[in-house]
Amino acid sequence: MDSPLPPLQKGWQVIKSGVPKNVLKFRTDLPVPTDIPKGHVLVKVLAAALNPIGYKLMAMPNFMVKRPVIAEHDLAGEIVIANGTEFHVGDEVFGLVPAELSMKTGWGSMQEYAIVPAEALVLKPKNIDFTTAAGVALAGQTAYDALFVIGKLEEGQRVFINGGSSSVGTLAIQLAKEKGVRVDCSASGRNTDYVKSFGAEQVFDYTKKPLYEQLLEANISPPYNVFFDCIDATANLFVHSKKYLAPNGIFVSTGPNVHSLSALPIVLWTMTRIYWPTLLGGVHRQFKIFLFKSEKTKLQALADLIAEGKLKPQVDSVFSFEDLPKAYERIMSGRATGKIVVQVL
């Protein structure tokens, strides 16, 4: 290191259950970690990105998650303590603090110095900056897993991506096209050209009428092999999917979009409709809720595609560290086209 670590750092903690503006606390007296567990490193966080899982976890009751907890997971920065791992001090990296680890330890990315498992980091490609790299790990692996691990997409098949202009959606379009898959998606009219620039072919404007009605009227042929809903608008789309999803097709969802506990009754009703037995009129199609697991091989694959210019992560907006609550307002608006990133240092 060029200089010794400071004893204290700034960071954002989630201190209770609720919506971001009510549960976030900005701290200037957090200790900088010095006791780093084996297999982990200390990262000087230069940029951190927001994800829906961030505010979803905030909505969970205190008995389900550890609090206080440092907000968020995605980050990019420099190694300051390598701790006997494959990394070296000064390495530029990106990755994430896994959610399951955060829930147990209280660790997170929205602080100046973060403990991160070495397995959840890779070297940052030289052709992107820290701001862009900060938003790759969670969204990129989500898109990859939904399409190829769960969906098992192959060259020549078809996929529909609901939320094509979202951060996950734009990466999913690019990953699918790279594999030779035909991509259709949803987007607002103002974002049609935007998603087509990544390779989407037929784009459905969800602002005109309910998306499932448009898909029914389109008489999709051949039907989609995978329907990836990455913005949590699942119920009606799945209930009507028999008309546009192949008999052996898979409907993949990132899960219910819970902003607060008051949304739970709606979520339960949605799940009832989805899992209603086929013998009683339910939908005879596979439904999978995405369960995220970070893996170094997937992170490295994403980094390689970025380095080769085949994957171009998008940044919607950048906020100062002190403006994290405003950044959450942006992500929860549902209008972001790319990642919302916070400049930490």
TrEMBL record:
Q: Which SUPFAM superfamilies match?
A: GroES-like, NAD(P)-binding Rossmann-fold domains
Write down the Gene3D superfamilies for this protein, in alphabetical order.
Medium-chain alcohol dehydrogenases, catalytic domain, NAD(P)-binding Rossmann-like Domain
Domain Enoyl reductase (ER) residues, every copy:
18-342
Write down the superkingdom of origin.
Eukaryota
The cross-references to InterPro entries, in alphabetical order and at most eight, read: ADH-like_N (IPR013154), ER (IPR020843), GroES-like_sf (IPR011032), NAD(P)-bd_dom_sf (IPR036291), YIM1/Zinc_Alcohol_DH_Fams (IPR050700)
| Any single Gene Ontology cellular-component annotation | mitochondrion
Q: GO molecular function terms here? A: oxidoreductase activity
Cite the PANTHER family for this sequence.
ALCOHOL DEHYDROGENASE RELATED, RETICULON-4-INTERACTING PROTEIN 1, MITOCHONDRIAL
**Official protein name in the record:** NAD(P)-binding protein
Instruction: Please give the organism.
Output: Calocera viscosa (strain TUFC12733)
